[in-house]
Amino acid sequence: MGKNETMRFEHLTILQIRYLTELEQMEKGRGTIGAIAEKCGVKHPTVSRFFKSCIEKEYLTQSLDFTEKGQMMLQRHQKVVRDVRGYLERSGITEGIDDVLKGMVENIDYIRLEELARSHMRVNKGIQMKKEEDGIGEIEELIEYGNHMVAISIMQTDGSGRSMAEHGFEHLGIVKRNKRGCYLELTIKEMHEISRINGRKMTGHLTGLKYLQGDVYKIAGIKNGKVRIPISAFCFRKFNHGMLQGNLMITVSCSVGEAHMPESTARLIFKL
């Protein structure tokens, strides 16, 4: 199998990667599928159907041994999981890291994830900064020209957990610096929530985002499913392990059932 061919492996869920990892480590025999299902907290038929599809795709043999193609497929998935988890840990994302990891691995193109995990650019090396600095000014001048992917977190205002507002955005944002300025671009996505009033499923999109700059809330327009926020609006208070952490208070509103989903205030965080 050529190098380019490995790029065509379909995405697996985190659980499916675990099924295969358990299979790889387990001595094969009667009861193998049942043992894996029990370890992973799922039903026997769920694992059995998945392994059957792997046999059809020639990832596994009838005796549940890995083919060369299957071994390469699993190794790639395992590497992506390790690398993305490492990136999130370096970025200081600890609260709900498994949920963020699951969302990224299952929904974002692997090539983009690999680029993100390798990224360490972003701050111009020619500019020296002291780690003990508590505040940082003129952040735009520190960022290299170009587009830089970042993982975003949207936390409750007190930092106690993840905000529901996070469901309205893709997990990756892009820090862009060009002749027009420097800003963080977020991509909105459809939200799925359950009404607290009648228990019905609701869907919708974010319709508005305001951010707190100084003492004033400013409106960030939504255009073609994108939201742009000036980097100058963020407060950067840490410089650790070569990374800067941006922090911004935001308020978002949703298009569906405002009586059930009122404006939500949260804290938007990302690291460079």
From TrEMBL:
Return the InterPro entries for the record: WH-like_DNA-bd_sf, WH_DNA-bd_sf
* SUPFAM superfamilies cross-referenced by the UniProt entry: Winged helix' DNA-binding domain
Write down what this protein is called: MarR family transcriptional regulator
